[in-house]
Amino acid sequence: MKKILSLLLALVLVFSLVACSNNNTETNGESGVESGVLNVQFVPTNNDGTMQAKAEPFAKYLSEKLGREVKVTLATDYSTIVEAMASGQVDLGIMPPAAYVQARGLKAAEALLTSVLGGYNDETGEPEDQTSGAFKAEILVRADSDIQTFEDLKGKKIATLSPTSASGYIYPVAELKGKGLDLTKESTLTPVNDIPSEITSVLNGQQDAAFSFEGTRYVFNGIFDEDLPTELRVLYLTEAEIPNDAIAVNPKMSQELKDKIVEVFKNMNQDEEGKEAMSMWSHQGYTDAVESNYDTVEQYTNTAAE
Description:
Blueprint: H1 2-22, E1 38-42, H2 51-66, E2 70-74, H3 78-87, E3 92-95, H4 97-105, E4 110-120, E5 127-132, E6 134-135, E7 137-142, E8 157-160, H5 166-178, H6 183-186, E9 188-191, H7 195-203, E10 209-213, H8 216-219, H9 228-231, E11 232-237, E12 242-243, E13 246-249, H10 255-266, H11 272-278, E14 285-288, H12 295-305
């Protein structure tokens, strides 16, 4: 898995270097968006085919608020959005933390805002009436599983997301390495397309466990016949917190447009159309980004790849 991650990062770097060299024709050091279409992209949490339809009203909403044409596309995975930002094909990315850190390292993205999510009780796993700018990763197993501690994951089959996903791979792998269990060598890690696929694989017994984000059982409960809080159990919750999604833009974008984007996103929870758009990522609001909060993501990424 280390070789796969290293190859993935290398391909992203090569792609971005070639693409950036092709973008040097831009005038005044500004993004081509200054006089054209604003291209927006995000990584869907659910690849069931419904997200593209939901993206169209979001594009219309942003277009009305920003006073310019907006096109919204879906990234096929975490690496795709990094490549799109690096090549200049995307001007604004709603980026998972690990993807943002990669794009930042390529000088292809600047975080303007961090999303705000609903909080969860670390002891019970239940939703709390509060919000947070960070979250934790969790490892889920069936409620009736004989896996009782993280040590029991040795030799087990585990569903993961992409090796570039913070909660779906990086943080669980890195943190358990620090506790003496290298899951990349002592267990079978199988990447799947999305979180519902992870959940399904655990429920039907194909996989023994799955990596996801804190609160997964409640966020996705409505799309399953099973009652996920009853059928699934949180085996392990990471000690480290992960900063939420970044609302990131091409660093060459004009300050005027950056300021307008910040204004629109900060006010998004003030009307029904905005709330509907935010619900695609379970976002409840946005706050000014603090770059240092994302530094730990880079550290954990390096540890997971070792």
